[in-house]
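[audit] Reproducing an earlier prediction to check determinism. Same input, same settings, fresh worker. If the tokens differ from the archived copy the diff job will pick it up downstream; this log only records the rerun itself.
[audit] input (298 residues):
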Amino acid sequence: MEPEQEHGKGKQLCYSQQAFTACLQRVVFSRNKFKENMSARRLFRFFRISILLTILVIVAGSTWLTKLRTTDWDSPLWVAIYPINADGSEATHRYIQTLGKSSFATIEQFFSDEAAGWEVPIRKPVSIQVAPAIDDLPPRAPNGQNILSIMWWSLKLRYWAFSRDTYNGPAAPDIKMFVVYHRPRREPLDHSVGLEKGLLGIANVFAGSAYSEKNNVIIAHEILHTVGATDKYDADTLPLFPDGYAEPDRDPRHPQRYAEIMGGRVPVSASRAIIPASLHRCVVGEKTAEEINWITPL
């Protein structure tokens, strides 16, 4: 072989070795870079999860403390009533203008009487305050039982309530009750709701003095939801026995004389129940008293 050929092959071999070394270096560099990126991603994921868990713990702790505070019954719960004109009518507006603290006096008296009956050591469990009227309607509750839709609605409702707080009393209310007044009509109103998480509720009622006492039954029912009471009626709105009955030991069982407030109606037979005319026909039953921490479960 000629010297020039051997020299050319040597140069090619040298170049090949240099290229292989450079390629190997790039592979090693890329691998190290990949490891660095993965480490950064893991670190970011760790911090993100830590932040979310911290927020979850704070929210859970806040909810637990709020539950304790609102059901220790050491002092009256301040409930702010926020009237809302649902249909924008002049008649509904005029009725809302007549509302004052005395319009909801039977709610305060109901809680006082029932607490005394269960020997709760507080003379006035609930104090009603009336806030200025609100112009717009709350977010409408979703149809159906989709958990994500309900959670999203709950968040929207809480933000809506926060951003439209018209109450200017001496202290922030413990419970916000948005009372949506409608012109009287034959069609049923949307279902009223009370949220324990958020301590707020929406009561859909009819405008007019003839409906005021029945309205107060609905408002008291939703207030009790915010402090932990559950519904005690079936899909047909018939009170469930025994927890939804005011007098479960009555013999004969029907007709009942009163409505258990979370049962919502007075059972007059096994298949028929009527809406109580006022809170004077309602009582807090044993199960509801347990749920709101008026008595200790046996």
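[audit] rerun output stored. Observation attached for the diff report: The chain is about 45% helix and 15% strand.
[audit] end
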